[in-house]
Amino acid sequence: MTELVDTALERIHSSANLADLEAVRVEVLGRKGVLAQLSKDMGKLTADERVARGKFINAAKQSLEGAYEALKSKFESAALAERLDAEWLDLTVPAPGPKRGALHPVTQIQWEIEDLFRSMGFSVLDGPEVETEHHNFDALNIPPDHPARDMQDTFWLEGHHLLRTHTSPVQVRGMEKLGPPLKMIAPGRVFRNESVDASHEHTFYQLEGMMIDKDVSVGNLIYFMKTLLTAIFHREVTVRLRPGFFPFVEPGFELDIRCLICGGPGCPVCKQSGWVELLPCGLVNPHVLRASGIDPTEWNGFAFGLGLTRLVMMRYAIDDIRWLQSGDLRFLSQFGGQTA
Amino acid sequence: MKFSYNWIKEFVPTLDLPAEGLERLITMKTAECDGVEKVGPLREGAVVAKVLEAEAIPGYHNQKALVNAGPYGIKTVVCGAPNCRAGLSTIYVPLGTKMVSGVLSDGMLASAAELDINKDHDGIVELDGSEGIPVLDHAIEIDNKSITHRPDLWGHHGMAREVAAITGHALRDVVDMSRLPAPGSPVEVEIEDFTLCPRYSALVFENVTVQPSPLWLQARLMAVGLNPINNIVDLTNFIMAELAQPMHAFDREKLVGRTIYARPAREGESILALNDETYALTPANLVIADASGPIAVAGVIGGDGSAISETTTTIVLESASFQASSVRKTSSALKLRTDASMRFEKAQDPRNTIRALARALELLPILSPGIRLVGGLADCCGPLADPPAIPLDLDWLGRKLGRPMDAAEVRGILESLEFKVDAAFNAAFLVTPPTWRATKDVAMAEDLVEEVGRMIGYDSFPPTPPLVPCAPTYDPPAREFLRHVKRTMAAEGFTEVSNYSFISEEEARRFGLKPEDHVRVLNPIAAGQELMRTSLIPGIHRNVVENARHFDHFRIFEVGHEIHKQADATVKPLERPHLMLALFAKDDGRAGLLELKRVAQFLAPGLEVRAAEAKPFEHSTRAADLYWRDAKIGRLAELHPHLVEAGRASVLDLDLDLLLELTPATVKYTAVRRFPTSAFDLSVVATAREHSGSLEAAIRRLAGPLAEAVEYVREYQGAPLPEGKKSVSFRVVVGAPDKTLSTPEILAIRDGIIDGLTAIGYELRV
After folding, report:
1. CB contact under 8 A, B561 and A325
2. Would an 8 Å CB–CB cutoff place A29 in contact with chain B?
3. pLDDT 10s digits, A38-49
4. Does some domain include residue B114?
């Protein structure tokens, strides 16, 4: 009997693959297998013998099934390993489908600054690109035939409209819509009738900002600008104010920052002065408040203009402004890396 | 505008800052400076010299001169000037030695141009013996834009007043008003409208000799960018540069009659001006006229007919004041900006006219020895209002600037700028601006904030966080939506471009748009940029063509405003933000169009594509309208092959305002189905160009309310189907909300669809 079982075990172990093994299983453990044969003459045995035979069969069964299961599992693992091996894949081939596109660098900077202002509680407003003379000039204290109109060469449209020369008209629209107190910015496309060259564009982007409240002071303006510019440039900046003439503010300032390249001693970027002119700002002229229906004896505030296009050029060290409106993917696709 | 450092120093004699230091102070306190440059650098070390001998150098055009160069001793100088001759008194510049024309030349004899005295480069300077050499000067360039509001800063005296106030030095006034004669001139002045011409003052002189001005005066004019012409013209320019008061000299013999009129031009009048141009005038232009007609365009330019010439012996010297806006209008209408018009348009103080004449009375005898004043002063003047006093509350001033203000400091600053300061009660002043600041610049207390703030220096106000209310911000929904659109497009592989808002007539026509439907730019920057775009397609098309030179396939998008003309042109044009996508590839174009459709449906789930007739610029069989929530919100098409070489470009246009408007504010929830659904497939045989969308719509309609979904599965063409036919397969999912459908119920729906389709002529493959 032991011999029979040993032979069966050998048969199991000699299986070369899963199919073999399955055949052996039927042969050994099936109805006509070794165990079945051993059970066949049970009826002829004595009670004691039956007990002994039963024990033997059980042991044999365990041994044979164990061998079968072990081998089966081995074959299955091998088969899986083989399949996995066959499924070798070169993951360094390019992924199919389109690559991520890039947002325009002006869009990216604009969003960044918008988010900064929103974190400080400013509303972000839009205004039309086609403006009335009233909103672009008159309400900003630039009456007709005022020489200040020369500062902004204007595209005039039929119907006595114009293309806004700055985002400042949105100040007026914002004050009209929201009233005081007010914290708002207005980014957008503006137009100046000047010839295009490496540093001049007739189409560019600005961001206008305004805060209207009670007793807003020059000291507040300086604090705010310092905070803002430190956030924009990701480093502490030193600012200075000097007089600047813009009819919609009084007093008006040019804000300079300590040159970020040389830090002060002078370099070609700051034309050796140690300072870089960055933005115009000032306390809102009472005429402007009044034109927008706000009582200047009760409210005042500050306003400023940021050149978004200029910031883009500073941020990326772009040497020719014309790239921005070129639509050229060799330029634009470079800006796809960072924005979510 | 250029300022001469030496000139300023004449008004502020104790000034001890060099030009560069002064430039920085002016920038910080008054106006933006664009730099300092030396005027006449060769004047440094130059001396008056006498030519002792001059002989030609054989074989050369140059002469060899022996020169008595005063402190430098006797020098041998090679000189190319034809006027170099023995006995000539001229100017020697010690420049070191060099070989010239085979002779060792030590230093040089200079022309007036080389010394920045005038533009004469024909020969070396000829001195008459009494004259010295103008000393080295520095020109400080001020940005004109930064003094637009300051009429007084268009002359040296005004700038010197600032310098004196900034540095704490005394200001000297060069004008001696006691020189002015009593009224009673041989010319009469008639002003038609004192608003347009508040004042016209004049003096008449005889025994005038027209000759070059002295070198020092020429050098001054050159330093500030004015060309010396002759002593009379130079005088007017000199006083203008000094006192900001433009003047004009007429040759009196050429005037008709003894009355000078300041009046609007009559219809049809014209004038030949000093620049040899003839200008047609209208009643909008103020002129100075004699009995025969215009002799000058007021405040802009003089007439040629009465100009000073070498033969002039009597002159009328005009010093007048004109309304700023009138001068500006005339100057822009005539496209003529002059030194005079630039000053008048800043609103000059009418009180300045007679100061300029008093100054002329001092200078003219020097410039034209022997000159005689004829009669007295002609001075026609309208009512001149005194500047009103402005109350200035010191506490308010401190709150504006950001720190408490000291009364004595404020008073000191304002008085240094010649504001009159009267103490009022309650720590307040009554401040009267000087007349030259009151014409335009200073009228309210905020203007005084600037005066005090800039003089103290803005750096002295401590940065202070504002105390403002804390409230949620107002955020227009369109902004977040636009960000979402742009982000989605970038994530879908499209790169953002930005195109101009201008297009050409030709571009409009190329894309089936009528030029007359566009808002026109009245002063386009260049031909081809005369219309405001009513579609983003011309720009996107240009991007496609240009980028196709470098790339085989790409995706771009633009978000920009379409600008639409209103029926009434005076109503502001309508601006609609649009999204335009373009996908370029070198294939058969099908995948691109469907990809754009997918992206559109990503933005607007459920967006429908409805076949539409192609426009001429579109592929004739590949164009469709896009509908969402029953509104037409855009267009999908392939560009016509004529427009895109070597590839296919699909474009998609969406009206973003409409898209945002139709976007549901909230989601409506329906209970999740509790009973199972069943599905069956149908294959409909149709002609090859039948739209699967219309088949789907027909099935949906026939399936009735229990149809949960009708899904396109695939389509097939080829055997055994006949040529020109296709089979389109759909899966129909049906189910009831309140029970499981029985097989007969499902079959009934299926049969209903089949019967319905058969009834409208379709065959089904079963």
Report:
1. no
2. no
3. 788 888 888 888
4. no
